[in-house]
Structures are given as C-alpha cells and as structure tokens.
Design a protein that fits this description.
The protein has eight helices and ten strands. It is α/β, with parallel strands linked by helices. The chain has a seven-stranded mixed beta sheet, covered by helices on one side. Strands 8-9-10 form a three-stranded antiparallel beta sheet. The longest helix is centred in the N-terminal third of the chain and has 14 residues. The two termini are 20 Å apart. The mean pLDDT is 93.
Length: 283
C-alpha cells in the first residue's frame, strides 16, 4: 500500500518486543498463575459482575476482534458497555495517518462496535461513578485514556489484557499477557477497507498463549461458542457468519490483500485524512 516506504515511528516498533515494561506472565491479585487458572478466574469474575465495560483496541486483529465480540455476547451482565479507544494525532499527508490505529474498520466489520460513536469513551466514567459498571476489562489500552483514574480503579475490578505494563497495571485484579504483532499472525482492514494479513516473525514469551487461543478459551469458559483450532477455524466461522468475509480464508488472502465492500459505513466520519495512496471522501 505504501510501496517500500515506512515512517520513522514505524521503524521503531520492533523495540516493543523486548521493552523493559513487557508483560510475560498471567497473574491474579499479583500472584503468578497458569493460563488455564487465569481463564477460569476471569470467566468467574465476568459472570459475577453487575456491569462490564470493555475497552477494546483498534490495534487488535480481525480475528481477535471477532472473538472479543463473541465474549461480549457471552457476558450475562445487565449492563455492558463496549468501546474502541481512539488514537488520533496530526497526520503528515504522506505516510502517517491522523488515525494511528491499524484496524478500526475491522472492529466495524466484525460487529465489535456498531459505528464510530462507539469510540466515544466519555460515558464510561459516569457509568463507573453511578455503580452501573463494576468490572472494566481493557485490551492493550490504558484506562486513563478512558478518563478513569486510580480512585476509580480502586472501587471496581480491573482486568488488563496487554503486551506491556501501564501505570495503572498495578491496580489490576487479573493480568493477562498478550503477544505483540510481531509474535503472531492475523489480519487487519486498512483505511481503504483492504483486508491484509501479517505473519508471525519472532517467537513470543514462553508460556504466553496466542491471543486468539486465550480469547477462544475464555469464550468457551463463559458458555459461548468460539471456534477452536487457530486462524483456519476462525476464518471458517468468519466466512460463514459475516457477509463481508464470505468465501475468504486466511490462507487465501493474497499479498496485495482483498478489498472489502465498506459501503455500509459510508456515512461514518472517519478522521484519518489524506495519505500517500488514500484520499478519503468522508472526513
């Protein structure tokens, strides 16, 4: 899409793999546990919650977002608030987009969010203050970006799924390590609605499950239906359930990607701005 070009900031992303604040262990109340115990403990917490807020990520893959939607559907809480954290900054009109996330459109296509209005996190703190939400689960996002502070976290159960420790991680009741994009395979849908896949480049930390395996196990523990068997099984389900992905499989995504029909979201006001190969009509 960008030919052979890459922005300077993107060239530094490899440093995240071995960063000092990298997470590499499952923990419950600060106690190291195995992945299966983490799944059981988190499932029990979600079932017991009065209200659950999920701060999802537009940096998660299509496959992960699909499974996270399955998790949302399996949560029995009376109040469920799902949002995808926005990351906007000034673009350069060439390589760097004003939308700094790689897969916002994946969250729309998988149904994780219904529209860009679900990137507005202003209502989360009010729901926490009112007591409607007593469990917050964040996926590779800092809860401070959602307007929650330390005092808010002290009065609820906070669950963090992430690749790195944030300043608020010490307040998490359950800590789930995730893999960086370099340690797993998956797909993104870019700003042109082009589905592209990426392949695992380096091994992840020992004992850390691929994100899709952990999420599928969690959905199953919640009593939901999640495809087990890796990306192939997930894509069989995606192709059967979501018209935009019909007749597609992970193996059949070509190097240049597949253009997905995004006309259903033509009214959304995307904020990425013009870049080298993209001039959006609805910004």
């Amino acid at each position: 899409v960008n030919d052979s070009w890459m922005s300077d900031t993107a060239r530094d992303l490899y440093k995240t793999v071995a960063a000092e604040n990298r997470t590499a262990a499952y923990a419950v109340d600060g106690r190291p546990v195995k992945s299966d115990e983490a799944v059981k403990t988190l499932a029990a917490a979600l079932k017991a919650a009065k209200g659950v807020a999920i701060i999802a990520s537009a940096a998660s893959s299509v496959e992960e977002q699909y499974l996270l939607k399955k998790l949302v559907d399996a949560i029995p809480a009376g109040k469920k608030l799902v949002t995808v954290a926005p990351h906007y900054a000034e673009g350069d009109g060439l390589l760097v987009s004003a939308d700094r996330t790689p897969n916002l459109r994946g969250a729309l296509l998988t149904g994780l969010i219904k529209g860009l209005g679900d990137t507005d996190m202003s209502g989360l703190k009010a729901a926490v203050d009112s007591g409607e939400i007593d469990l917050v689960l964040s996926v590779n996002e800092s809860v401070t970006s959602a307007g929650l502070g330390i005092e808010d976290l002290k009065k609820l159960k906070y669950v963090s799924l992430g690749t790195h420790f944030y300043q608020t991680s010490q307040y998490s009741a359950i800590e789930i390590p995730l893999l960086t994009v370099f340690e797993k395979s998956g797909s993104f849908v870019n700003q042109q609605f082009r589905l592209q896949k990426f392949e695992k480049a380096v091994p992840g930390p020992a004992g850390v499950l691929p994100d899709v395996e952990f999420l599928a196990a969690l959905v199953s523990a919640m009593g939901g239906q999640a495809p087990r068997g890796g990306l192939a099984a997930i894509w069989t389900a995606l192709a059967a359930e979501i018209p935009s992905f019909r007749n597609l499989s992970f193996d059949r995504i070509p190097a240049e990607g597949v253009l997905i029909d995004g006309s259903a979201f033509a009214s959304e006001k995307f904020r990425e701005g013009k870049t080298l190969h993209f001039a959006p009509a609805n910004v």
